[in-house]
Specification:
374 residues; alpha/beta; TIM Barrel; 13 helices; 12 strands; 14% strand; globular
Length: 374
């Protein structure tokens, strides 16, 4: 198994002390967290996209470009890029530039986003969010894979003979599809032959396992080799301590503070107590042995090769402690338990070997035979 540390650069007051941090401090701490993640042997670092408080991650390509200059090995992911509200031409240009500056370490994770503030902010209708995502992704793929692009869709002005610059360094740039609530996202990923990143954040395991099963079923239905399907999974908080009692006690203030946020309420998690979230949800809170066992159960359900961890809720000192503890006491056992094909220079990277998806040239994705539509 491989590991990605991800962040939305949340800038809420400390749940224990009430201390507030400047925006400048939090942004700079995010860069240092990425440097630490590389030093500790994590495989990737991800920056998500949000537009509104308490999050400072409105410009992931800018943050990741700075991280690229401070690191050498770690893969750089977007967790996620809210492609439903973005211009695919701008995305193609920004992230191809980042791909070059990082030496070909970029990977995109795309999604429609789950923050209702995004759509009115960008002058868009939330009722069309899935159509926006499908059409924008079809165009992004076209812009990265071809030159002299002629295209017409439903939600953007037509393109005539466009070649975006620079061209991506990687051929192709890997694109994951973020999945949290709907089979529309798993269908889109399977249709295009792309890997799936399950949010695995707010609800019981079975909800996410059902989406992963749908992805694998539709992957095969679209003619892709079942062995080439690749899945990643997130987690709903991470706090590892010597004993489960210590972990619960020390993590509780952060859980309670999160439960009171608008994001938690919008996602309608059924877990009202930390004990429920640990027992039946995706919170990785406990001793090293408990966390290893829990991720092992997820692996049986998802077959995932990449695990996402977030430590946003904590002050910088606790973030460092948690990343160090997980890297030393949890990650080695999980790497042995669940081998991963990702990012192995001496092996076959199956994601980059997927068969070509049907061409979307000249048509929006929602009109393609077998492609998802809202």
């Amino acid at each position: 198994m491989k590991f990605v540390v991800f962040t939305l650069i949340s800038n809420a007051p400390d749940a224990v002390t009430g201390q507030e941090y400047s925006q400048n401090q939090r942004l700079l701490e995010t860069v240092e967290q990425a440097v630490l993640a590389e030093e500790l042997g994590y495989d990737a670092f991800g920056v998500g996209e949000r537009h509104g408080a308490p999050f400072l991650s409105s410009a992931p390509p800018v943050v990741l470009a700075h991280i690229a200059a401070r690191t050498r090995r770690v893969r750089l992911l977007t967790t996620v890029t809210v492609l439903s509200v973005l211009d695919p031409v701008r995305v193609a240009e920004d992230y191809a530039t980042l791909d070059h500056l990082s030496g070909g370490r970029l990977e995109l994770v795309i999604g429609k986003g789950n923050d209702s503030r995004h759509f009115p902010l960008f002058g868009l209708e939330a009722s069309h969010q899935w159509e926006y995502l499908a059409e924008n992704y079809a165009l992004l793929k076209l812009l990265w894979e071809k030159e002299d692009v002629h295209w017409q869709g439903n939600y953007r002005a037509p393109l005539r003979g466009v070649t975006t610059q620079p061209r991506p360094l990687q051929l192709p740039v890997r694109v994951w599809h973020g999945s949290a609530t709907s089979t529309l996202s798993t269908e889109l990923a399977a249709y295009h032959g792309d890997p799936l990143f399950s949010a695995n954040g707010f609800h019981p395991l079975e909800k996410y396992a059902a989406l992963v099963r749908h992805y694998r079923e539709r992957w095969e239905a679209h003619g892709h080799d079942p062995k080439d399907a690749v899945v990643a999974a997130g987690s709903g908080g991470c706090y590892v301590a010597r004993t489960s009692q210590q972990a619960i006690r020390e993590y509780r203030p952060y859980f309670d503070a999160f439960r009171a946020t608008a994001a938690a309420k919008a996602n309608a998690s059924p877990f009202h107590t930390l004990e429920e979230a640990v027992a039946d949800g995706s919170a990785l809170v406990g001793s090293p042995e408990q966390v290893i066992d829990k991720v092992g159960r997820w692996y049986e359900a998802f077959g995932h090769e990449l695990l996402g961890l977030g430590v946003d809720a904590f002050p910088a000192k606790v973030q460092r402690e948690q990343l160090e503890t997980f890297a030393a006491e949890v990650a080695p056992a999980l790497r042995t338990l669940a081998p991963s094909r990702l990012w192995e220079p001496s092996g076959r990277d199956l994601v980059h070997a997927h068969p070509a998806a049907p061409s979307a040239e000249g048509r929006p994705a929602a009109e393609l035979d077998g492609a998802p539509a809202a």
